[in-house]
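Field reference: sequence -> structure
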Amino acid sequence: MIQELKNNYGHLFEDALLNEINQVGTFKEVAAGFKMMEIGDYVKAMPLLVSGAIKILREDTDGDELLLYFLEKGDTCALTLTCCVAQTKSKIRAIAETDSKLIMIPIQQMEEWSEKYKSWRHFVFESYNNRLNEMLETIDSIAFLKMDERLLKYLAEKVRISKNNTIHKTHQEIAYELHTSRVVISRLLKKLETLGKIELNRNAILIKDI
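Structure field:
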């Protein structure tokens, strides 16, 4: 685990902190689709992502989901950090978008490392800032972009995260994540196929020109 820590976090943390993370952290591998955190759970550890991608979702009163942002290699979740500090229940759902490797850090270490290591404090504050900016982008997309523009942005982000031009999602799953109806998504995807930008297959979308 120490080598993966150095490869992914060596540019952020000093050797002493890397060694402490190696001592107290728990290495975890999860498959795509694995639910890592549910709304209402108490947070007992915070993740440091070594590889893969995790999607962070919110849910409205009707049970519909909204994609907030993705966590990628070298990231942690600011909303998880908040729950750790406040010792409150999770307000988000975290699901592995791709096969992922993580190092889980006990929440007891957070306060100690914040006092002990300047690099850890900087990492935590930077994580808050990055996730806040991503949530603001999500809000801006909902408020200012038309649904077809949001869909194009969503598809492009999926390709970037998975590094694969084929997106294995149903129309209903995309609708959930964009907080709209399946009918709307199906209509817009068909329009994109007519324009030659995508190719629709069963439960998969081939991205050709986005």
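Note: The helical segments are 2-9, 15-24, 78-86, 108-116, 118-144, 147-162, 171-178, 182-194.
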